[in-house]
Structure formats: structure tokens, C-alpha cells
Amino acid sequence: MERTFSRLMNKLETKGAADILKYASVPGVIPLSAGSPSQEAFPTKELAEIAAAVFREEAVTALQYNPTEGYPPLRAFLPGWLKEKYGVGGQGDALVLTSGAQQVMHLAAACLVDEGDTVLCEDPSFVGSINAFRATGANVVGIPMEDDGIDTDALEQALETQPRVRLLYTIPNFQNPTGITMSLEKRRKVYELARRHGVTVLEDNPYGDLRYEGEDLPAIKTFDTEGVVIYAGSFSKVIAPGLRVGYALADKALAEMMGQIKLCDDVHTAALSQMLCYRYLTQYDFEAHLGELRRLYAQRCAFAKKCFAKHLAPYGVTCAPAQGGLFLWLTLPHSIPMKDFCTAAVRDHQVAVVPGTTFTVDPDSPIQGFRVNFSAPSYEALEEGFVRLEACLRTFF
Ligand SMILES: Cc1ncc(COP(=O)(O)O)c(C=O)c1O
Predict the structure, then answer these.
(1) Are the C-beta atoms of 175 and 127 separated by less than 8 Å?
(2) CATH-assigned architecture of domain 44-283
(3) Is 33 in the pocket of ligand 1 (CB under 6 A)?
């Protein structure tokens, strides 16, 4: 049958995103491409105990339709927990439980952005979010990154010159893909600029708990007294991504609208997943679990940096300082065509990394960086992955 597809299908850059997941399962390929947590990081035993208890004690709630905004005990518990742990949220805010943080991007854009409106985001940035903004027909405009976060001068200029800016998307902690953390000064500036221009900030913080060096910095949401900021959180990187539980903390009217859109989307986030999260957070030692994760990933991060120093640094490749998160962001010397390198790496050397252009607003923009994941592969695979990257690199000299 001849079909006419929607204009949306031409706007999405799904190939790069799909490749990230695809290579994780191709036999023989070492996937340094996915953003997956380590399988050792999953609290499998605890979740099995909880699942058994849920089916003994609350099976009907787990299996029945649930409220769109979230499983009530989790929705009641999280605001106090978020306030105490991260200082975010206030009287004027409400919470919507979502199917991963990915859904927050879609709900926020659906509530606030019409076709032709402008969404500003860090460039490069998380491709899943960029696609969620593109899906609304928005004009997505990238703002360059600096070593301490988004270039606030360029941001100010964009706020002054771009038409109908509705949303500013940022990942302040261990940004995906660059690993960069926004300075405190810039966090305040971003808030002030957005407030002054009447633009909603969408602050995405899936990696904030995974800090291995330095001091935690306050979320932009902690400055928010006027309902400017939507704070997106996720249990994907700290419990398990397969559960698909995230949340949006936003001003009440906006949270209510996000719930209305969610109702049309998926009715509610899987109740069983929310129940697993609720009981895990309230009945087990979540802080101890986070401590374990930080230890596990700090070691892997240090190992990946050592492999980088041995195999790639001698060829002039540089590594951005990563104080947390799951990735290293590596930059090739200008003489090496980055996309060709990443293609040759997977095609000829069976090691998958993600070319920087996957994350840029303009897929043709000149960028020399590529992303390497260190959380999911074993130590052996990580080392072998760097050996193969070196072999690939040598063919370019
Ligand atoms: C910056 C960022 N935001 C959001 C997400 C989506 O996460 P979730 O699994 O909660 O949907 C990811 C996933 O990798 C991410 O890196």
C-alpha cells in the first residue's frame, strides 16, 4: 500500500539514536555507545522481594488502572523527599510521575510549544530531548557549551533575538554527552535570564546523584520562586531504566496540564514500576545504594581514563574532565574526520562509540567530539574497546 507519512517523520533524527541502542546487541561489537547503567548496579534481589510483597499485599492496585499523575503513595512521598534531598519544590509546585524522564520532555513541549516556536538547548545535547522538541515542530536553536556550562552570553543574545522562545532545556550536571557541569554562577544567570524573558527552564537531572569528584551544586530549581523551572528527575540511572519511572516537578497549573497530555499518551506510568520504586525508596537504604553506585562508577570512570591515557592521548585525542555521570567525551585532533573515524571504528574494528553529530542540533555542524560509555561494559570489554579505538585511530595517520 502507498502511504503518506507525517511531516514529523522527516524532522526526527532517529538514525543516530537508534544506532546507539542497536550496537549494544550486535555480536562481536564492543558497545561503548549505549547510556545504560552497569548490570551490577541493579538492586535485583531487593526488587524481587518487593515484587513478591506487592503481589501478596497490593496485587489489585498493581494490576488495575491507576491515577494519571502517579501511584498515590509515591506521589505523596516524593515532594518531601525531593525538598529534603535536593532542596527543590515548594508550595506552588506539583508532581507528575512519568514514563521515564524522556516523557517529561514530550509533556513539557506539548504543553508549551507550538509549531514555529523556539526551543533553546545546549549544543550538543541529549538527542532524545532534541527529538522530543523537534516533534512539536519547534525551531530548535543550539547554544554553545563552555567548560563551565552553557555560554550565557550567547544564551542572552538568543533570548533577545530569537522569535517566540518558549523553553530553555539544560542538563546542568554531567551533561549528556559532554560530561560538563554548569557552574553555580551560570546556574543563577540562567535562572535570572529565563525569568526576565518569561521563558520556562526545563532542568533535566538524571545523573546528579552520580558525582565522583567535587562538591554538589544546587539545582536551578532551588532558586525558583516564580514557577519558572520544570525539574525533570529519573530513577533510570539510580534504580533501573527498564522500570521507566521518572517525574516532573512543576508549578501546579503546568503540572496539571502535563497530566492532561499524559492521559492521552499512556494513561499512567506502569503502577508496578512505581510501586517498586516507592517501596525501594522507603523500605531499603537508598543512600547506601547510591554510595555503592558512586563507588562502582568512580572505579570504572578512573579505569576508562587510564585506558584513554594509554591508548588515545598519545595521538592528540583529548578528554573532557568528567566529575560524574556515565560518559567520557573525547575530542579528536582536527586532522581526523570525526564521523569517518566513528564509522570505521564500528565497521572495521567492531567498537561502537557515538559521533558528536548525533547530539548536535544541526547534524552537519563541525564537531570533533565523540561519546564513550564506561558504565555498562565489563573492564575487559572497556580495555579491549580502547585497544580497538587505538587500532582504528592509527589508520588515520
Ligand atoms: C540527559 C538525559 N535526559 C533524559 C534521559 C531519559 O532517561 P529516562 O530513562 O528517565 O527516560 C536520558 C537517558 O539517557 C538522558 O541522558
Answers:
(1) no
(2) 3-Layer(aba) Sandwich (3.40)
(3) no
Select from 258, 244, 134 the least CA-distant residue to 200: 258
- pTM check: above 0.90: yes
In tens, the pLDDT along 6-17 reads 777 766 666 665
Domain limits, the chain: 8-42+288-394, 44-283
Identify any residues that bridge with 355 across adjacent strands, giving them in sequence order.
Answer: 370
Tell me the pLDDT tens digit for each residue of 109-166. 999 999 999 999 999 999 999 999 999 999 999 999 999 999 999 999 999 999 999 9
What spacing in Å lies between the alpha carbon of 335 and ligand 1's midpoint? 33
**Which among 234, 269, 274 is the best mutation to test ligand 1's pocket, defined by most ligand atoms within 8 Å of the CB?**
234
Q: Which of 117, 119, 185, 118 is nearest to 150 (CA)?
A: 185
Task: Determine if ligand 1 sits within 6 Å of the CB of residue 99.
Answer: no
Alpha carbons 224 and 311: distance in angstroms, whole number: 45
- The yes/no answer on whether domain 8-42+288-394 falls in CATH 1.10.530.10 is no
